[in-house]
Write a structure and sequence with these properties.
Shape of chain B: globular
Number of domains of chain B: 2
Helix content of chain B: over 70%
Order of helices and strands of chain B: HHHHHHHHHHHH
Radius of gyration of chain B: 20 Å
Low-confidence stretches of chain A: none
Largest sheet of chain A: none
Low-confidence stretches of chain B: none
Number of helices of chain A: 4
Distance between the termini of chain A: 33 Å
Structural class of chain A: mainly alpha
Mean pLDDT of chain A: 84
Order of helices and strands of chain A: HHHH
Number of strands of chain B: 0
Oligomer: heterodimer
Structural class of chain B: mainly alpha
Mean pLDDT of chain B: 85
Strand content of chain B: under 5%
Distance between the termini of chain B: 61 Å
Number of strands of chain A: 0
């Protein structure tokens, strides 16, 4: 992957990110009380976040018993969920979950 | 009195301390991951200035690694950031009259900055809002720079570190579950995500799943709020 490709991707990411922040001030200010906008604002992030979880777990093959990443992935996900429901601390959940996953895939089974 | 002159910044510093505790370590994790994925040390701080959104920056790393097209990168990051649209909508009135500071306030509107700006009365003063926004971006930039430098100076086996992204998305989902309190949108996300995962190649899965979820949510809106729609001319 060339540096130019990466820089173009970053520029596009920057435009997309800026557009999401600036559009309401440029275009939507007259419609800010439209119920459809409120609906999407409340529920779309929830749907997208679940999709991102699925996307980031796309390598998981739960039906293959001998997948070397399968059990560590499932265990680490369960650990993140349990830790987060217990402590509600974003950082602890992410750091401990990632550390546990790295330990399992590097030294595991 | 010098203490009087420094006190607005000190006040902003104390307001942003909780954000610092989140941004610096998460920024370090991002910087380390960015370098470990083979990018130059300056890419992480560059992204923290150009994009300045944790979830989008982590997602961009994974899209680059998966060889996604530029269109997919743009649309996926825009839709992931779509929540900012609604932060902006609720601040349109507030930012009126912020003058020269307004472009920066709009550009630097993150989840955490929004939570401070929308919950503290004194942030109605654009000078206070500006100091808070600038300090928050400073914490994020500092973290990603430290992480990138540490990642390029220290060498260690980073196998498995990409799980940080999965963990971040799981945590954000749990946080949303606590506030949204309705199962349907999560079920829609799960259905569209799994459907696209099995039907499409992984490179196109994200975009298709998010698009499908938007459509189903619109149908959900029409079904659940018919009276609201009838009122429209």
């Amino acid at each position: 992957m060339s540096t130019d490709t990466v820089l173009v991707a970053v520029a596009i990411g920057a435009l997309a990110s800026l557009a999401s922040r600036a559009l309401p001030f440029l275009a939507l200010s007259r419609h800010h009380d439209h119920p459809l906008l409120a609906w999407l604002g409340r529920y779309l992030p929830a749907a997208i976040m679940v999709i991102l979880v699925v996307y980031s777990l796309a390598d998981l093959r739960p039906l293959q018993l001998h997948d070397p990443k399968g059990a560590p992935l499932l265990l680490a996900c369960a650990l993140v969920v349990a830790l987060h429901l217990w402590r509600r601390n974003v950082l602890i959940s992410i750091v401990v979950g990632t550390g546990a996953y790295m330990a399992m895939v590097q030294y595991g089974t | 009195m010098s203490s009087l002159r420094s006190s607005p910044w000190r006040h902003a510093l104390s307001l942003t301390t909780p954000v610092m505790l989140g941004y610096v370590p998460l920024g370090i994790a991002f910087g380390v991951l960015c370098v470990q994925m083979g990018h130059a040390w300056w890419l992480a701080p560059l992204m923290s200035v150009a994009i300045y959104s944790g979830a989008s920056q982590f997602l961009l790393l994974s899209l680059l690694a998966a060889g996604a097209s530029l269109t997919e990168i743009g649309v996926a990051i825009f839709l992931l950031s779509a929540r900012h649209l609604f932060y902006g909508l609720s601040l349109v009135g507030r930012f009126r009259g912020s003058g020269a500071r307004k472009p920066y306030l709009v550009y630097a509107l993150t989840d955490e900055t929004y939570s401070l700006l929308s919950s503290r009365e004194e942030t109605r003063d654009p000078a206070v809002a500006f100091r808070i926004s600038l300090l928050n971006q400073g914490w994020w930039l500092l973290g990603s720079l430290l992480g990138a430098l540490a990642g390029s100076l220290l060498s260690f086996d980073s196998t498995g570190m990409e799980f940080a992204l999965t963990a971040l998305f799981i945590v954000l989902t749990l946080e949303l579950m606590a506030t949204v309190r309705r199962v349907t949108p999560f079920a829609i996300g799960l259905g569209c995500g799994l459907g696209a995962l099995f039907l499409l190649p992984q490179r196109h899965m994200l975009l298709a799943a998010i698009g499908a979820a938007c459509l189903v949510l619109l149908l959900d809106y029409r079904r659940r709020a018919p009276r609201v729609l009838e009122q429209r001319p």
